[in-house]
Design a protein that fits this description.
It comes from Metabacillus fastidiosus. By secondary structure, the protein is α+β, with helices and mostly antiparallel strands. The two termini are 23 Å apart. The model has no long low-confidence stretch (mean pLDDT 87). The structure holds adenosine-5'-diphosphate and magnesium ion. Magnesium ion (MG) binds next to helix 4.
Length: 228
C-alpha cells in the first residue's frame, strides 16, 4: 500500500508539472519551426545536415509535448456522457496514416448499443493515442492492432488493445506507468504515466496481459455511470 501511495503521489506531482509546462512550450515551438524553415529557404550554403538535425530534435520535443498535452489545459476538464466508440474512431483516423506507413492495421470491433461513458473525451483520446502509439511502435515489421470495446458487466466498459509485438517481460510489468520508464532508445517514458493518471481520474483501471514474443493486451476498464 505504501508503495502504491508513493506511486500515485509521483504521478500527481509529475502530472501537475506537465500541466504547467506543456502548453507554454507549444507556441514557441511552432514559431521556431516556422523560422527555421524560412532560414533554410534563404541561406545559400548547404547546411542540410544541420537543418535535418534541428528539425528532428524539434520533432522530438513536439512528440514529448504531444504525449501529455491534454493535461496542459487545466481549465478544460469537462466531464460529460460520451460515446466511447466515437472517441476511438477519431483516434484511429488520427493514427491511420502513421500506421499504414509501418504496415500496421488498426482493427476496431465494438458491441452495438454500448452505453455512453461519463468522461473527459479529450483525455480519453490522449490515452488511446498513447497506447495505440506504443502498439504500433512495438511492431517494426508491421502487424495488426486489434481494438475491442464491450460491456464488461452492468457497471463497466472494457476497451482492449492487443498488439502482435515482442511483449513485456513479467518482471517489467510493474514498472509500466512509472514516470520516465522507457526501454526505447528515443522513448520518453511519459505516455503510460499520463494514461494511468487519466484512467485513475476516471475511476478506472488498466490491466496488462503480455506474452513475450507474442504480444500484449492493454485492458482499460471504465465505469459507465457518473462516479460519486
Ligand atoms: P515510451 O513509449 O516513450 O517508451 P511509454 O510510457 O509509452 O513510453 O511506455 C513505457 C514502456 O512500456 C515502453 O518503453 C515499453 O518498454 C513498454 N511498453 C508499453 N507498451 C508496450 C507494448 N504494447 N508492448 C511492449 N512494451 C510496451
Ligand atoms: Mg509511448
Amino acid at each position: 500500500l505504501k508503495e502504491q501511495l508513493r506511486k500515485s503521489d509521483t504521478l500527481h506531482v509529475v502530472g501537475e508539472l506537465a500541466a504547467g509546462i506543456a502548453h507554454e512550450i507549444r507556441n514557441p515551438m511552432t514559431s521556431l519551426k516556422g523560422f527555421i524553415q524560412l532560414l533554410e529557404a534563404s541561406v545559400k550554403e548547404d547546411f542540410s545536415t544541420y537543418f535535418g538535425i534541428i528539425t528532428s530534435e524539434l520533432n522530438r520535443i513536439e512528440s514529448i509535448i504531444t504525449e501529455f498535452l491534454v493535461l496542459a489545459k487545466p481549465q478544460a476538464t469537462k466531464f460529460l456522457q460520451k460515446d466511447i466508440c466515437e472517441i476511438m474512431k477519431n483516434t484511429i483516423d488520427l493514427l491511420n496514416a502513421q500506421a499504414n506507413l509501418l504496415n500496421v492495421r488498426l482493427d476496431l470491433y465494438y458491441d452495438n448499443n454500448l452505453p455512453a461513458i461519463y468522461c473527459e473525451p479529450n483525455q480519453l483520446k490522449q490515452v488511446f493515442i498513447n497506447i495505440l502509439k506504443n502498439a504500433i511502435e512495438v511492431m517494426p515489421k508491421g502487424g495488426n492492432v486489434t481494438i475491442d470495446i464491450k460491456k464488461k458487466n452492468s457497471e463497466e466498459i472494457i476497451v482492449s488493445i492487443a498488439d502482435e509485438g515482442f511483449g513485456i517481460p513479467a518482471d517489467k510489468l510493474k514498472r509500466l506507468g512509472e514516470p520516465f520508464y522507457t526501454t526505447k532508445e528515443r522513448g520518453t517514458g511519459l505516455g503510460l504515466m499520463v494514461s494511468y493518471k487519466i484512467i485513475e481520474e476516471h475511476f478506472g483501471k488498466i490491466k496488462v496481459e503480455s506474452v513475450e514474443g507474442e504480444g500484449t493486451i492493454f485492458h482499460l476498464i471504465l465505469p459507465i455511470n457518473k462516479h460519486l
